[in-house]
Amino acid sequence: QVQLVESGGGLVQAGESLRLSCAASGRTLSTNAMAWFRQAPGKEREFVAAIRWSGGSTYYADSVKGRFTISRDNAKNTVYLQMNSLKPEDTAVYYCNAGRSQDSGSYYPYGYWGQGTQVTVSS
């Protein structure tokens, strides 16, 4: 099935930037999009951004809109998350997921997750 590997996390100061990568392998049949989620300790996992493989339509959570940019390289089967103007509240483990996006903007995650990459933003 689909295998996902995230990378690019690290420790940065507020206002700085990071770029996360998610490399996908295996069959992605029945999926039409990739997404980034994040989860802080003791909190629910939350949606961050999604992008369709075909067409490249993007969707963002309000909390990151204008600061984060999701992109893809179909030839490399890789999805990226450029994170600018990072804030301490962005601190979390970031996961990528393969799923489906609807025209409404809703995203439905499938059971394909990476191991996560830690992002820590200090004040």
Describe this structure in words.
The protein has 123 residues and is an all-beta fold. 0% of the residues lie in helices and 56% in strands. It has no helices and eleven strands. The strands form two sheets. Strands 2, 4, 5, 6, 9, 10 and 11 form a seven-stranded mixed β-sheet that branches. It has a four-stranded antiparallel β-sheet with strand order 1-3-8-7, with no helix packed on it. It is globular. The model has no long low-confidence stretch (mean pLDDT 94).
Strand content: over 45%
Low-confidence stretches: none
Measured as a percent range, the helix fraction is under 10%
Counting DSSP H or I runs of 4 or more residues, the number of helices is 0
Average pLDDT level: 94
End-to-end gap? 40 Å
What key phrases describe this protein's structure?
single chain; 123 residues; mainly beta; seven-stranded mixed β-sheet; four-stranded antiparallel β-sheet; 11 strands; 0% helix; globular
